[in-house]
Amino acid sequence: MFQSSLLPCFAVLAYNTGMMNKEASRIYQEVLGFIRHPVEDGFGSLALRVFAFQFERNPSYRRYCKSKNKTTATVASWREVPAVPTAAFKELELACGRPEKVFLTSGTSQGPAKRGRHSVPRLDIYRASVLPNFTAHLLPDLVELRMLILTGSPALWPHSSLAHMMEVVRQEYGGPDSAYYIKDTGLDIEGLFRSVAEACEQNKPVMLAGITLAFHQLLEYCRERRTAFRLPPGSRIMDTGGFKGRKIDLSQTELYRRYEAMLGIPQTHIVNEYGMTEMGSQFYDNVLADLLNGALDGRTLPRHKRVPPWVRTRVVDPETLEERPPGSTGMLRHYDLANCGSVMALQTEDIGHTVAGGFEITGRAAGTEARGCSLLVEEILRTQ
User: Which CATH number fits the domain that encloses residue 197?
Assistant: First the structure.
């Protein structure tokens, strides 16, 4: 009798679980289809469906939205979707279900327990957002290129979204002898130096891609040996991360000048990537794509980050978090459909302003500038 009385409950549970899985699959397929074939006027309606899905399936996010009276009944535009500061990923599990992969931010002074967690439900969505954007900005003219990768591999950095991204592009576009140069002992500077010299001797272009700190180490190694390379035409650089508070007094302008002087790669072929663990999509400098598409003459470099079709970026006041007029400076807020399994609307502490087709980053909020974000985190935590 006991077992038979539970059968209807199990049947209802199985039915509800099946319906939830079907709904998740439907929204994920919609996002995947949009990333592969974006339609300009389709973003808004899909963003609202993603918000409704996240409101239903992400408990922490739902409680926060309800505290602000932002529900599926009151939100009429993607611009009204409540944004979550990236710092909240250190405090809460912001997921719409069981993830296929969890990426972790790098450690902080607060210890490993305060590392941000981004739960990704399906890696095929992550891959779909990586490849076309990377292709458009770093390989608009080629289908394959040897990659000298200045990051750890996914085996070495299993929780790094950057390592995962680099492996996706290596598998898709990396020519023979593509390799990672950060090992468990640090940067294999001698191996990297030899590979750069080999590329020059073979007169075959390469892509150097990785973290700015590793590039700086390579530049210092070359300087100490009084060696400057002239990598073959078509070679290019993708750097990311900056110096992250390290005591290295070097502007981006001077860094790129050194890339050109020490490696022989023109600044039109130096592309900075801006991304974050908490976000499924990335942004890239426009310069190489514009040069090869004939929109840049090579003499002037109006460098900015371009926004992919499945993302929207707004600039908000650092204190009030209200949207600022076009061209005004404030904190960047991104709405990323690739984040369909976590939180679509992300409030960063990056300072910048919008330009036609994208935005420029001018710094990082600090002190009173970051007050709005700090209050937002406190507000989210109070709702839990």
Answer: 3.40.50.980
